[in-house]
Design a protein that fits this description.
The protein has about 210 residues and is mainly α. The chain contains eight helices and no strands. It has helices at about 15-35, 50-75, 85-110, 115-125, 130-145, 155-175, 185-195, 200-205. Helix 2 packs antiparallel against helix 3 (about 85-110) and helix 3 (about 85-110) crosses helix 7.
């Protein structure tokens, strides 16, 4: 949820969860301090102590984000190992689980333009935001593309956005309608829909050159 190598998502594995949690705590501290903020209309925001939706959302992030970030970081260690589909599935499952836990609180923040503006400001200050998850998946796919395990013309950034965006849509549909397709089948469907042209792990293990056409 940040933009790349300077983020806590790129911290060494041992302190990874603590680094991400520290990011969220920093954002929460800014909210609680009530530093001056500009509202959606360009004027000073309403009473900075009235931040219940934002503080609840950040409390949930403190609990859920380190676990989610760890799954995404672990994805990078799977480059060249196993099957690409099998590697992507846990990332998709973690994304659905993460947004299931936070989306209601997030929508509450969106309903208040001033709180949304405040949250946007602290996210920018602390390098938080959903882009880090997209970056993690895109980096994984780029590594697999370099090894020839997915098609050479795959747009890794677009594929990551399609995969994680579809996961968010699954959560939204379930929250809105009270039902959604079975999770495992849905994940398998959206990964297949990416048309990565992934190669089975055995083809490399047996010394078979990957087909560059995917």
């Amino acid at each position: 949820m940040e933009s790349d190598d300077q983020s806590a998502w790129s911290s060494p594995a041992g302190g990874h969860g603590d680094a991400v949690r520290h990011q969220v705590l920093g954002a929460a501290a800014d909210i609680m301090r009530g530093a001056p903020a500009v509202g959606s209309d360009g004027r000073a925001a309403a009473d900075p102590s009235d931040q219940s939706a934002v503080t609840l959302y950040l409390a949930l992030l403190q609990d859920r984000l380190p676990v989610y970030a760890r799954v995404m970081k672990d994805l990078g260690t799977r480059v060249g190992k196993g099957d690409v589909t099998d590697n992507l599935a846990p990332a998709a499952q973690a994304t659905i689980g993460f947004y299931t836990g936070i989306l209601t609180a997030k929508v509450s923040v969106f309903a208040n333009p001033d709180q949304l503006m405040r949250l946007r400001q602290v996210f920018q200050t602390h390098d938080l935001g959903p882009q880090a998850a997209y970056d993690a998946v895109a980096r994984y796919l780029a590594g697999e593309r370099e090894l020839g395990r997915i098609a050479p013309d795959v747009d890794c950034t677009a594929a990551a956005q399609l995969l994680l965006g579809a996961c968010l849509n699954h959560v939204f549909m379930k929250m809105l309608l009270g039902e959604a397709p079975a999770e495992d089948a849905y994940i398998a469907q959206i990964i297949a829909g990416l048309r990565l042209g992934h190669r089975p792990a055995c083809s490399l293990a047996e010394g078979t050159a990957p087909d560059p056409a995917g």
